Amino acid sequence: MRLLTHNMLASNVRGATTGYPLKLEAAKWVTKEVDLNADFIRGLLPKIDWRALVAATRALGLPELLPEEQPPEEEIFAEGAADVEGSAIRRIHHALLEIHVQEGSLVCPDTSRCFPIDKGIPNMMLHEDEV
Amino acid sequence: MADGDGAAASGKLTEHSASGAEKGLPRRGKSLSGRTLNTAQIPLVASHPEVYEPCDDSFALVDALLSDKAQLLTLQPRLCMEVGCGSGYVITSLAIMLRQLASGTQYLATDINKHAAETTQATLEAHGVHADVIVTDIVSGLEKHLAGMVDVVVINPPYVPTPEEEIRCKGIASSWAGGLNGRQVIDRILPAVREILSERGWLYMVALEDNDPLDICHLMSEMGYASRVVLKRCTEEESLFVLKFWRDPHTGTSASPKSPKSESWFSQLPFKSLWHKGS
């Protein structure tokens, strides 16, 4: 599971109000490089919950990866920024698409219901009495 | 990466729009030779006793996607998703098919069956493509934050007519048990998928004659979706359709459901004639 998916996932357990963002607890994660596509990031960014993304990176022990506040778009998409090591867009790309959480859990912020991540796959299934 | 892709794709198109598909040619054999560039390779598709193996319906869906490959490439989807990914054959094939895109397309797949999710993951890995796989019921947990974001959704739903109680069976039964007329799960899936489809989004779904595809198209039309039969295929056991849906400003509740456009479209549907031919 990448942090892009974490950003889209909520808990639907009975008693949850928003069930979002899920608290990430990662026991194991890996990074895999993929090509950066600025247009993709540009289209996606308005849909991204920045605070949830930042919280997820901090939960992985990467407090320096993303700033508390989202940088202005002019900075993120500045000409040539994608080629600059450590630029905002490179960091955002890395956070969203290159980090794969392999083992851990997602915890509902409202109910503390824990959803396991096993072999990279989060299991969001609820028991009948939880729906 | 995409060497020879075009030729292979067009060869394939001619083949299934002609008589080959109806004759029930051995799909697996073909996938070994002719499909290596465009789809997942069957020997590399992972398996598990509790997971539905790629079969005629899976091949029909992938063939339908192949026949729409040029349009899919033009669409440049940002997010693609399979609901009920089973073995992973379909989502893997889609990712391979669109690999030449430089648009950063991302893939998601869900299945209610944990073994299916793991099998999908293994199939994706074996082909060097990636999708984030989630164990969940349809799109539960994603509906809110993924609303209006998915450009391509592919579904081979549990469409087999069964007693209602079979729907609640776990494991492999969840891949086929469709309840009354095979529609009970489909009718839960469609509203959920409409939530996550983007304005320009496309849905491809397998349906059976027994599911009353005309009725499905009509219901979707009332919700503002136009539709088209991308592929029809009669196998020994069933007559399969792959339906495609997309938002159309001229379709839906605001316009008359009997607008000239939808009427002419419905009258073209070959369901009846095909049914007679197949039976």
From TrEMBL, chain A:
Q: Which residues form a coiled coil?
A: none
What the entry lists under InterPro entries is as follows: Trm112, Trm112-like
What's an example GO BP annotation here?
maturation of LSU-rRNA
Q: Which GO MF terms are attached to this record? A: protein heterodimerization activity; tRNA methyltransferase activator activity
Q: Which Pfam families does the record associate with it?
A: Trm112p
Alphabetized CDD domains for the sequence: Trm112-like
> Can you quote a single GO CC term?
nucleus
Report which superkingdom the organism of origin falls in. Eukaryota
> Record's family?
Belongs to the TRM112 family.
State the oligomer form and interacting partners: Interacts with TRM9.
Q: What is this protein called?
A: Multifunctional methyltransferase subunit TRM112-like protein
Taxonomic source organism: Setaria italica (Foxtail millet)
Q: Which gene encodes it?
A: LOC101784924
Automatic annotation (TrEMBL), chain B:
Pfam families given in the database record: MTS (PF05175)
Q: Does the keyword Transferase apply?
A: yes
- The Methyltransferase small domain covers 78-160
Q: Specify where the region named Disordered lies, as residue ranges.
A: 1-33
A GO molecular function assigned to this protein is: protein methyltransferase activity
Instruction: Tell me which domain of life the UniProt entry assigns to the organism this sequence originates from.
Output: Eukaryota
Respond yes or no to whether keyword Nucleus is given for this record.
yes
Q: What UniProt keywords are attached to this protein's entry?
A: Methyltransferase, Nucleus, S-adenosyl-L-methionine, Transferase
**Where in or outside the cell?**
Nucleus
- GO terms classed as biological process: methylation
GO cellular component terms, alphabetically, are: eRF1 methyltransferase complex; nucleus
| Family of this protein | Belongs to the eukaryotic/archaeal PrmC-related family.
Q: What's this protein's name?
A: Methyltransferase small domain-containing protein
The protein's organism comes out as Setaria viridis
